[in-house]
Write a structure and sequence with these properties.
527 residues; alpha/beta; Rossmann fold; GMP Synthetase, Chain A, domain 3; 3 domains; nine-stranded mixed sheet; five-stranded parallel sheet; 16 helices; 26 strands; 30% helix
């Protein structure tokens, strides 16, 4: 009998095979897979009792928490579409998303009551509000736990099409208003299985949720771990000291991080005081990682650190530095360089690097092209935006906007986003290459390189740098350091020092925000 491919099956499988295995740890609360599944079933039935219809959008404003993790399955079991919203967006963007998605329900942590107050008058569709951590004093709405207690614990049997939309994630809006990425049941199901072929996981694994669940499908973790009965440990919001504490106390074996998170952890004063021996692997994504940072992280954390790559539109992970023998036999510097690359495509992912005419570039590690992808994990399209969908999916390939090279072994290495390539006097300069050079300086904590206007060259590279506490370096020191490894035209023309660099909801450095003051008032941007 044909069974639709849906991640719903993963939690039900865990419920049958690992009923007494601890599934979720969230502060003092612990749930077995039997309890976790029952709570997801109750959520589904509660939503149905409140009138949820097929395909209705259920929005969340929540930190990483067990109620949001339950939503990953309960909303789908009820036939709804899960819509986790980035809690660091402006109130205006949150209102835009709720209106654009026409959300029927809004499940919110009580900390966001002021946000709900602010946006309520501008909402065209007034969603039913459910408070995840108790109804705030003076507010209307239902209490989450009370609803679950009243609902049936029996899992409903939704009639669903595996190609129907299961999740809706809005992009960060770096090039305009946020766009809703539609991910199908089938895409999420196959993404989990594709991932597990290259990075095996089992019931002994304990994963710390450092990546926000509102971001890019939580990097697939909600679906991946139940397949094998592994454990979720929730981190309400990222704090390096708290992450280190949880690694020690909960015996964490794996975690995901963006480079900024990794920098904060390995430079935290508690890092040498914590027992981190349980940690086996850290997967780094959300942007290229400098090889020097990867090396420092391996030495400090005592585990393997590898890079991965993905986007909201690809469910998300489509490449990992795993699945091909020989890394351990390489000289140390070459091994680190490979581990810091974008990696190899996952099973089920057809990934190419192509030039402007759509031809694959030479696999020589030098020719730059755009990463394009065909796969069952690619999005259905952008919500209510056919034009943007056609543009992104032209020629039957999803165009990522990421520029990369590929070497003779098939390893892909991102060199920049299209918009972050610096074109100086007709030469293409990778901001990532300059950043990698800067990160190799012992005083640099974090950095970003942007193109700024120049009358002679059109634009030139400028480095914005935050130094490690207690370390010192001047502009001339860093420029001289870059000259040791970079061609002259790639060396930053200037360096500006900051206490810290602006970051988005996942810790990624916001280059657009850094770039804007330099281009404000210009008739045109070079890009």
């Amino acid at each position: 009998m044909f069974v639709p491919l849906s991640p719903i099956e993963f939690l039900r499988r865990a419920e049958r095979l690992y009923p007494e295995q601890v599934a979720v740890v969230d502060g003092a609360r612990r749930f077995t897979y039997r309890e976790y599944a029952e709570r997801a079933h109750r959520l589904a039935n509660a939503l149905l009792d409140l009138g949820l219809g097929p395909g209705d959008r259920v929005a969340y404003l929540s930190y990483n928490s067990y109620p949001l993790l339950e939503g990953y399955f309960g909303v789908l079991e009820a036939g709804g579409i899960l819509l986790p919203i980035n809690i660091r967006l402006s109130a205006g963007d949150i209102a835009y998303i709720l209106n654009d998605a026409a959300a029927t329900f809004l499940l919110a942590d009580h900390d966001f009551a002021p946000v709900v107050d602010t946006i309520w008058p501008s909402l065209q569709y007034k969603p039913a509000v459910v408070w995840l951590s108790g109804v705030p004093h003076g507010y209307r709405g239902a209490d989450y736990d009370a609803l679950l207690r009243q609902a049936s614990p029996a899992g409903p049997e939704p009639s669903l099409d595996e190609n129907s939309v299961a999740e809706l994630f809005y992009t960060s809006g770096t090039t305009g208003r946020p766009k809703g990425v539609m991910l199908s049941h089938r895409a999420l199901y196959l993404h989990a299985l594709n991932f597990l072929t290259l990075l095996p996981t089992d019931e002994q694994d304990v994963q710390l949720h450092t990546i926000p669940l509102f971001h890019v499908n939580g990097w697939g973790t909600p679906q991946i771990l139940p397949v094998v009965g592994a454990r979720h440990v929730m981190l309400r919001r990222f704090d390096p000291g708290e992450a280190l504490r949880l690694i020690e106390e909960e015996r964490i074996t794996r975690l995901y991080a963006v480079p900024t998170m990794l920098t904060m952890m390995i430079n935290h004063p508690d890092v040498d005081q914590r027992n981190l021996e349980s940690l086996k692997v850290v997967l780094v994504g959300g942007g290229p990682i400098a090889p020097e940072l990867l090396r420092q992280a391996e030495e400090t954390l005592g585990c393997r650190v590898i890079a991965g790559y993905g986007l909201s539109e690809t469910s998300p992970v489509i490449a990992l530095v795993a699945g091909k023998a020989g890394l351990e036999d390489l000289p140390a510097d070459e091994r680190i360089r490979r581990q810091a690359s974008t990696g190899l495509p996952l099973t089920g992912v057809d990934l190419r690097v192509v030039d402007d005419s759509g031809r694959e570039v030479a696999a020589d590690g030098q020719a730059i092209g755009e990463i394009v992808v065909r796969s069952n994990v690619v999005m259905t399209g952008y919500w209510r935006d056919d034009e943007a969908t056609r543009d992104a999916m032209r020629g039957g390939w999803f165009h990522t906007g990421d520029m990369a090279v590929v070497d003779g072994e098939g390893y892909v290495q991102i060199v920049d986003r299209k918009k972050d390539i610096i074109i100086s006097g007709g030469e293409n300069i990778s901001s990532v290459e300059i950043e990698n050079a800067l990160y190799a300086h012992p005083a640099v904590l974090e950095c970003a390189v942007i193109g700024v206007p120049d009358e002679q060259w059109g634009e030139v590279p400028l480095a914005l740098v935050a130094l490690k506490p207690g370390k010192s370096a001047g502009e001339s020191d860093l420029i001289a350091h870059c000259r040791l490894t970079l061609a002259g035209f790639k060396v930053p023309r200037s360096v500006r020092f900051r206490e810290g660099l602006p970051k988005g909801g996942t810790g990624k450095i916001l280059k657009r925000e850094l770039r804007e003051p330099f281009w404000s008032g210009q008739e045109r941007r070079v890009h």
